[in-house]
Design a protein that fits this description.
By secondary structure, the chain is α/β, with parallel strands linked by helices. The chain is built from 10 helices and 8 strands. It has a 3-stranded parallel β-sheet with strand order 2-1-3, with helices on both faces.
Amino acid sequence: MKSFDFRPASKPTFYFIGVTTSRSSIMKVFPRWAEHLGLGDVALRGIDCAVHDEPAVYRRIVAFLKDDPLSLGAAVTTHKIHLLGAGGSSLALTTYLMHFHSREDLPTRIRVTNRSKARLESTEAVHAKINPGIPVTYVHAENAERNDAVVGSLPPRSLVVNATGLGKDAPGSPLTEAAVLPMNGAAWDFNHRGDLVFLDQARAQTEQRKLHIEDGWLYFIYGWLEGIAQVFDVDVPLEGRRFEEIRRIAEETRM
C-alpha cells in the first residue's frame, strides 16, 4: 500500500480506496457536491493501494473504517484492487444484464475475457447462481491479441466494454491497433481519465464501423452519487432537474 497515516477522522469522512485517488475528478467534484447537497462539514480522503495489493492491506483498511466513529464508509475501485473478486465493474454489468425481467431484453450472448483464470472462474460461479439462461463464454485472454480475436468474432450491434484499468491506472488498452469493432456496435470505456487508448481506438473506427461511443463519465457520476447517498444517508436524485444540476456541477470541474 502507498502512504496513508491511518489517523482517526476529525469530521464525518468518506473514503476513496483506489490506485491513484489524488488524480481522480472526485477530489474536485466532492466539495462542490457536498455543499450543494447540504452535507455539512464533511471530508473525502483517498487511500491508494497497489494493483492486486496484499490481502493484509485490505484487512487493515477495513478494520480502520470499522473502528473509527467518524469514518463513515468508502467507495472502492473494485475492478482494480479486488475487494470483490472477478473484477467489480465487469461483474456488476453482467449480473445487471442477467436481472432483466423481460426475456426480450436479455442479451443473446455474453463474452467475458480476463488474463486470470481464477477471476474467470469466480465470475462464472457468481453467474451460475443468477443466470436466467444466457449463453456465456469465458475466455482466458493472456494478451491483447486474444481479445482482438474475441472482438472480431462479435456479430453486428454488439457492445464492447473496457472494464479494465488500462488507459487510466495503467497505460495501454486491452486491444491492439489491429482490433476491428463490430459494425453498428457500441464501445464503452469505463475509464474517464488517463490516456484512454481504448477510447481512441474506438473513435478511430466510428465512421467506418458506424459505432456509438461512450466514455466513463456518466458511470463515474452515477457511481459516486450512489455512494454518497448510502454513506451520508441522503436522498440524491439520479434523474430529472435536480440531477441535471448535480451533473452540471461535475461538468464544470471537468473542464
